Batch of 2 targets.
Target 1
Amino acid sequence: MSGKKKGGGKKDATGERGEKAKSKGGQPLWGVVVLLGVVGLAAVAFVRAARADETGVAIAHVVVGAFLIVGDLVYAARLGLFDPPDPDAPPEGLLVRLASAPGRTVIGAFRDGHLPLAFGSIAAFILAFHNFLGWHSGWFGWLVLVPYFLLVERLTTRRLLWVIPVLAFGQFMGGLYWIWNVTPPGLVTTSVLWCIYLTITSLVIRLARNELRVPLVIAGPVCWVAVEFVRSTFTFYKFPWLLIGHSQGESWALLQTADLWGPYGISFLLAMGSAVIATVLEMRRLGTLGAPGGPRRAALIAVGPAVAIVGATVYGMVRPHTIPIVDGPTVVLVQPSVPQAVKNDETGPSVELIFQEHLFLTAEGLIAYPDADLVSWSETMVFWPPNEAYPDYEGWWPDLDDWMKEEKDPRVRRRIRQHKDWAEDGDRKLREIAKGRLVSILEELADDKRLFRETRSQARDLAGRLREAFGEPEGGIDFVVGAVDRHPERPHNSAWFFRRGGEFGGRYDKINLVPLSEYVPFKESFRWLHDRLQSFVPPAFVSFEHGAGPAEFEVRSSGATADEAKSYIVSPHICFEVSFPELVRAQVLEGADVILSISNDAWFKRTAELDLARIHAIFRCVETRRGMARVVNAGISSIMDPLGRARDLVVDGELKEVRGVLGGVVPTSRVESFYVRHGDVFSNVVLTLALGFAVFGGAVAAMRRLRGDDGSSGETGS
């Protein structure tokens, strides 16, 4: 009989919840709509990925399946399948309670009207990074954190610890789906770390709100930007991607403020906008917005953020007119669009084919831009280190000979001999290009009977056109190539510089390596963990050593006497180093006039990674007020000015995976921006405030527990 009463009570309670939901504007229906919207969003991502290529298809399957499963759980909950058992029934075992805790927590959040917010948060995070679907919707950055802040305000701490990690995991798995094509463990590791970061951030916001009574418009932006700064700058796994400030890469006025505070200040403005909206919505829910003085209080809350946003906008509109732009070097950027599968096949035909493609495109570029000062190839496009270009190589080539004598496997011996032949012949050809003797190299190819007739004919035609454009093949040109330093003990991912005339002009070794791809941490401190993580590294990757610091390549203008020639300091970086503001800032502090970014984006095919990397490059130009030449294999090669305006390589209307040459003058400036002079002052202040919230908020909470005072409830209000 008691069971019947209990069941009846539950039925009434459920009915009351339904009536409450309807009185709030159809909460259950809204939840279903949001759920269907997120499933539709994932389906669109799947379709786009399938049309382009296989990249992202697997992760799209996971996203769609996960949300369908959640939909089934919600439907089961509506049927009462997750209702608590009869109190007279035997207690559940510990394992059963642990296994069912996440599901019950999520279902409880749905019943309380919070699960739709979680779905909305995931959808909002994905939409904020507009390039995920190829949209240009920077305006959505102002709304992206509204659902998240509402969750932090409304959820109890217990539910917060379940819902926020799910939200964070969905955000990074969706926003970084393209990493799956390179390193699935890297994608999962990054997403799990972001779960930890965002959960801690949420708890600190709660401490600031509940214990210190800090308004959400301050606590929310401070804590959010602090965690963006920490995950981008500190720890062994630095990963400055998917900052909400990056959503404003196409917003002219806000973008210009990056020369004050980098992307983090723009994230702060966006977070303040979301916090204002979330605060007003909470006031409306609690009934304080319509109470006497409510509108005035809401207006006062919005005044500070409004002044900051308007001030930043005005600065961004005025600042470009104060920056004198000057001409930098004339560059030729070679983009061969070599598929990664071909590049990974380091056999004779593949290596020779890739090298021929670069020779032909370089000739086309010099024909189109005969006054070029610098030719650049992209990352790791040369499969050998330039011979004798680096002092540490003394004695290395004889070691290879000894190695071949000791090696038993004839296939390995052939491969070693092949690499040595490539290095000796390729090094000669690279120096010939720098000497201005590309014509002679093309004529060699034209006379090579091993090549196809079409290849020989193309080489002969280009040699004739190049000779006609230059007259006598003399003069030379400064030349940068991306090559793998295959030192047996200290390999590096490098950019090599040849001065006109053929002499070696220096090299740059990549500093910030990709975790779990180009390097594995804990090599010295926790060897057992390092060995375990080493198994996650994709087979095509080499574990490199970190570079020592920035490099400077002095490029001289062509077509002038020694006295008349201008010189430019070109500072290179490689691959995803374009994402690190502090690295490019260090290059400018060393005297860089122009930044040279070389990368191989063929790993990511036509995915959003290409667009996001381009946005990062735009931010680096604005922060430092320097021009940039970005040359990418199969990605988006661009010439960018100090205001963030980009001229991209477009072939037949296509932007990605195109073969071609981009040339022209790199506009730059010699303005020393506030960010270059002072660095991350703003971000460090924000981080200090967030740490203060955590320390003092935690101390207040601890004292309350000692006094037996539970403090405020799960809902913080406004």
Target 2
Amino acid sequence: MKPTKPTKPIEPTKSITLQQKSVSESDFISTVPQPKCYLCGTEGHILYSGLKDKLFGAPGSWTLRECNNRSCGLVWLDPQPLEEEMLKAYRVYYTRHSNRGGFAAHADDLHEPQHSSGETHRLSFVGRAFQYLKRGFLASAYGYTKNVNLWQELAGYLLYLNPLLTQRIHHGVRLLPCRMKGRLLDLGCGDGNFMLFMKSLGWQVEGTEVDPQAAELARKAGLTVHLGEIRKLGLADESYDAIVLNHVLEHVHDPLAQLKECHRLLKPGGQIRVLLPNLKSLGHQKFHRAWRGLEPPRHIHQFTPEALRLVSEKAGFECEVISLAAGAAFFHQSSTFLRQKKSSSTTPLGWLRRLSALFFALKESLLIMRQPLIGEELLMVGRRKRDFQVGKIGIAMAVYNPNPQHFLQQLESIQLQDFRNWICVIAFDSPKEELLSDPSIARVLADSRFMIHENKFRMGFKLNFEKAAREALKQRVDAIAFSDQDDVWYPHKLSRLARELELHGPGSLVHSDMNFFSEDGLRAEQTVWQLEERGVGQVHSREVLARNVVTGASSLFDAELAARFIDIPDEIDFHDHWFALVASLHGGVHPVFEPLHAYRVHAANVVGVVPFEGILRFPRHSPMRDWPDKLRAGWLKVHAIFQAATKSGLRFRWLDRVMHGSSGDFGLFLFVQGLVLFRRDRPLSRHSFMEGAGKFVSLFLPAREEPAE
């Protein structure tokens, strides 16, 4: 299509920014028509017309079209500026000045301020205190423990009392967990403020920037910045552990090609974060054409959650799209000025406007709990899929004197799995002849995928599961699943768990919720997780040490890691607890909030389903004089598990070592953890209180001597 130019000059706004320059004829931006949606090809209708750049004075009058396809909803400029003309829209943009004032600024203003030389501004006492608490918060929430001591991490928990502030801190690291010395690429890095912050947290940072002046500002701070469009830089394949696009994707003409290039640059399992304005936000619903997120002509595309998910999946990412309210106050203030046709960078902020923006941010933060995609910004949390596929699953089943009918139901449910490439090792801890003489059972076991082993002597359920897993690993499987002898698996159980394990990659364990029913077949209305109030989201090793959240029969575990840690220490009572602990220190323990099998409850269950009965529950009919000994025994048990795991080669973080490996804190940290988790995870809160009390008792109250017989 033939580029067009406006026929007459457009008067620049006079009070745009302090740095704005006059606009000459050579500044006019050439355009090309774009009547159809970039993503799905559907024609669009006009959403807004006659839009002008009141922020930075770029010339032109602009129209936005909205895609008629509701499953997409992309909004774009029509006509669009030519790519080679886009620098004209950035002549006085905030990334060219060290006194920042744009989208990146509202997120990064919680970072420790930096000069372009890289030197840190002197902070007030309140500022230093906040930085101290923030680093402690990031250590506990994301693992950024570099130069953070134990007391600082505990102090960081105080910030949970201010949800608006914690949202800003989450936003500030783009929800990226720590990867010490991992390589991070900030695409469209501007003046490098975010890069400096992430470098201070332990990342090896690089950036790309198309604006030479912005890139020079970042380089003055000692940062590595590649100048040019990312597809023309020739960066090596699979070079980075994480890539961040902070308000970048809406600026580019070809966002799909941009994301595909990011996919090429990421290592398998590498993470990507894409942050941009949310067209379905509460702010856009309120301010409409004056909403700060539109910003023509620099924002070529405006994304809905559906459009962002669509373009991310087309690029090959496994992704989730969420919204954030961290910038709600900034968006509200800027949009208010734009609606009043004033400049958001030169007009002073009155206390009424500040208060109004604060109330708006609080309102959005509360509404986002019920309407998760109403925040001012969208965040795509994505990952490049690892080269890890679950092609074959080994099922380890431990059997001891099963009910023949129940045993048959378990076998048939395994045989009917829609994931077909499995082998099932059945380790009998009791004589098998009578059971195998049942014609129905013999018919099922004729399937060559079942492999039968009989122990020469009684091993017990834990060692029997260990033996079954060992035999399964000999079959070169990719993952290990455990099976009880009398449950019923749903047909899609293995395929669902396999997909989830592939998503999280090597070293991971995934586990699902369960329905449960009694011996007579009556199914309960609640699931196991609901009845026991399991805090399955807690997967830190310090929580798994205190109490196990994984039921073996609901889990699937990376076979390579299982082989490395196949020897279960004597101090650990349950096989599933051991493998959950191992996974928590490697790829993580990941829940699937869906019942994938029916757990049978009967008198012979080793554990069974135990409803949560309260924070201060003690065994019934337990005399008060016995409580100190019971508390002491609980602490010593967890302490013994920690020591045994350490001897087995597991490497724990310093907080794990302090909480479970020593008595020097008198149980204080466990009490603090119990208080913090009181509302979020009551079972873990109870375990923390009890373990902390046991640690205290073991130091100050002597054990009662047993009377001589």
